[in-house]
Amino acid sequence: FPTWKRTLARRTRESQMKRFCRAQAIQRRLEEIEVTFRELEQQGTKLEKLLRDENDSLADQHTQWTNQLLYLVQKKNNLMTEESDLMIAVQELKLEEQQCQLDEKLRSYMNKEDALKTPEDEKAEQEILKQLVEVVNKRNILIQLQEEKRLSEL
């Protein structure tokens, strides 16, 4: 193996590990969000019952419960936004992994000398190149979506 091939293989493994670690972190955060959703739902249900059942409670108490309920709704909306961002990140990771696999396949065909390539090899190389362009376009769409979302939040 020439040095450049070893370096390329090492970089490929490193990028796979980075994607794997990032995917694990995203999965953990999605699970945390799910648990928090359930807790917020329970708290919201309790507050709604208090607001419905306590018609003759003090106005200050009623206002406090209403404010708490609104705070819970705001917190839930923030979590939903974060969850949406994480789902986009998951899609981006999948496309990134797919792109790396296609790059590797394409590199193997491109490293083959032209004189040794069969018509099937050339056809496969073109198909992989086409798939690679599709994946890059999908990643671009995701990035544009994230940018539009970021700008709309500002």
From TrEMBL:
<feature type="domain" description="BMERB">
    <location>
        <begin position="13"/>
        <end position="154"/>
    </location>
</feature>
<dbReference type="Pfam" id="PF12130">
    <property type="entry name" value="bMERB_dom"/>
</dbReference>
<keyword id="KW-0472">Membrane</keyword>
<dbReference type="InterPro" id="IPR022735">
    <property type="entry name" value="bMERB_dom"/>
</dbReference>
<keyword id="KW-0175">Coiled coil</keyword>
<dbReference type="InterPro" id="IPR050540">
    <property type="entry name" value="F-actin_Monoox_Mical"/>
</dbReference>
<keyword id="KW-0560">Oxidoreductase</keyword>
<dbReference type="GO" id="GO:0004497">
    <property type="term" value="F:monooxygenase activity"/>
</dbReference>
<feature type="coiled-coil region">
    <location>
        <begin position="23"/>
        <end position="50"/>
    </location>
</feature>
<keyword id="KW-0503">Monooxygenase</keyword>
<protein>
    <submittedName>
        <fullName>MICA1 monooxygenase</fullName>
    </submittedName>
</protein>
